[in-house]
Structures are given as structure tokens and as C-alpha cells.
Amino acid sequence: MKLGIVIGTIVATLKDPSLIGALLLIVQTINHLGQKIDDPLVVVDPDRNAGPGDVVVFVHSPDACMAFPGDLWVPIDAAVVAIVDHVDIGRRTTLRVDQSWK
């Protein structure tokens, strides 16, 4: 699992039928301090709860299709599994969602 911040959305009028109703997001991978790492990627949000500016936990592997409800196989390799409120390491909060993101 990885942390990321949603930096945009994608609208696709034609897509695989199994993705109808899912939200396509552009996510910038970040570390536990909120620093950008790696390149942005497309991540599917099956619950349609995340939006621009949200910090999310996502799975980036062929097993990401398991984030979808039911026994349906979907052609994805990254999916949102949680929306983050804050990250704590020990007694110190290293990342809060109310911070301004650049």
C-alpha cells in the first residue's frame, strides 16, 4: 500500500464495462511527511469518495481489483482503499489532511 494525494480526476466516456460507476483519479505518490515521490498515476476509486486534495491509501499491484465489491475481476492495477485523516509516527503527527498541498 502507498500514500498519495489526489491531484485530479479523469472523465472517460468509453471504458471497460466493469469500471462503470467507478471514479478515475490522478494521484501523486507521497511519503509519510507529505513529500512527493515517483510520478503521478491513475488510481480507481470504486466507492467514489475521494476527490482533489484528499490524501488516500491505495494498492498498486495486480491485486488492486480485490478492492472492488463482489467477485468481479476488473482490469486495474491501482485502487483507493482508504482516505487518510492524519499519519502518526510514535507520538508525532507527521501528516495532516488540513495542510495546504503544493
What does this structure look like?
It is a single chain. The protein has no helices and seven strands. The model has no long low-confidence stretch (mean pLDDT 85). A hairpin with a 2-residue loop joins strand 6 (86-89) and strand 7 (92-96). With 102 residues, it is an all-beta fold. It has strands at residues 2-10, 23-30, 41-45, 55-60, 78-83, 86-89, 92-96. The protein has a single domain, classed as Beta Barrel (OB fold (Dihydrolipoamide Acetyltransferase, E2P)).
Query: How many independent structural domains?
Result: 1
- According to CATH, the homologous superfamily is EutN/Ccml
Rough outline: elongated
Q: What characterizes the major β-sheet?
A: 5 strands, antiparallel
For the record, the CATH architecture stands as Beta Barrel
- CATH domain class name: Mainly Beta
**DSSP strand (E) fraction?**
35-45%
Number of strands: 7
End-to-end gap: 22 Å
What's the alpha carbon Rg, rounded to whole Å?
14 Å
At the fold tier of CATH, the topology name is OB fold (Dihydrolipoamide Acetyltransferase, E2P)
Major sheet strand order: 3-2-1-4-5
Q: Structural class given helices, strands, pairing?
A: mainly beta
Number of helices: 0
Overall pLDDT:
85
The parts where pLDDT drops under 50 for at least 5 residues are none
Order of helices and strands: EEEEEEE
Q: Report the helical percentage.
A: under 10%
Summarize, please.
With 102 residues, the protein is mainly beta. 0% of the residues lie in helices and 42% in strands.
